[in-house]
């Protein structure tokens, strides 16, 4: 199966209640052969309207962060824990995340990234475990059973709300750049 086939399989999905309020399913976007996959929480208003991940203010900040480490959206693949917008941008429930995660896992399986960046608490808790705390675990490399290096960091929306998170996020992305350059054989 290809990513396109998976995306079309998802059309009209009603596996969870988030289907009721969505305009568009936000499947994910970017380079399907990227070494880096970025995972956020779920679509917001702009994403729901455009059908693309991280296109609002938080997405613009993510673009600037990527540019600071000489990467663009075409160098990475971006997805979310849930593919439909939760009402009023609330955090997706455990049930909604559980309904949608199998699609994200299929995307990971197809893309085979070597680095996964988890943006924020929802991504961290759903991919690593419900007890995981972003404030404690950000900036620390984890490794999946299949050897994917995973780095949790704050969500750009959290950085917009709290500028004191800028520096730690910048430090985390420098670590990502270092690892990426190693994988590319440039360091
Ligand atoms: S959030 Fe995921 S599981 Fe729920 S309806 Fe949307 S695509 Fe389906």
Features:
187 residues; alpha/beta; Uracil-DNA Glycosylase, subunit E; 8 helices; binds iron/sulfur cluster
A few lines on this structure:
The chain is built from eight helices and six strands; from the N terminus they run H-E-E-H-H-E-H-E-H-H-E-E-H-H. By secondary structure, it is an alpha/beta fold. The N and C termini lie far apart (35 Å).
Which stretches are low in confidence, meaning pLDDT under 50 for 5 or more residues running? none
Please, how many domains? 1
| N-to-C span | 35 Å
Count of helix runs = 8
Write out the distinct hetero groups bound to the structure: iron/sulfur cluster
Mean pLDDT: 97
What is the helix content?
40-55%
- Examine the secondary-structure arrangement and name the CATH architecture: 3-Layer(aba) Sandwich
Q: What is the C-alpha radius of gyration, as a whole number of Å?
A: 15 Å
Strand order of the largest sheet: 1-3-2-4-6-5
Q: State the order of secondary-structure elements, H for helix, E for strand.
A: HEEHHEHEHHEEHH
The CATH superfamily turns out to be Uracil-DNA glycosylase-like domain
CATH topology: Uracil-DNA Glycosylase, subunit E
The structure class reads: alpha/beta
For the record, the CATH class is: Alpha Beta
Strand content: 5-15%
Overall geometry? globular
């Amino acid at each position: 199966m290809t990513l396109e086939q998976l995306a079309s399989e998802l059309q009209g999905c009603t596996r969870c209640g988030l289907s009721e309020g969505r305009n568009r399913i936000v499947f994910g976007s970017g380079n399907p052969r990227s070494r880096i996959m970025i995972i956020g929480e779920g679509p917001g208003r702009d994403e729901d309207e455009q059908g693309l991940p991280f296109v609002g203010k938080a997405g613009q900040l993510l673009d600037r962060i990527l540019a600071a480490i000489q990467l663009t959206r075409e160098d990475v693949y971006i997805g979310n824990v849930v593919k439909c917008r939760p009402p009023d941008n609330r955090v997706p429930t455990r049930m909604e995340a559980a309904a949608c995660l199998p699609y994200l896992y299929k995307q990971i399986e197809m893309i085979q990234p070597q680095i996964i960046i988890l943006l924020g608490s929802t991504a961290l808790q759903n991919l690593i475990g419900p007890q995981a705390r972003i404030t404690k675990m950000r900036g620390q490399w984890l490794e999946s059973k299949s050897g994917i290096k995973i780095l949790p960091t704050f969500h750009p929306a959290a950085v917009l709300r709290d500028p004191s998170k800028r520096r730690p996020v910048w430090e985390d992305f420098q670590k990502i750049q270092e690892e990426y350059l190693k994988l590319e054989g440039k360091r």
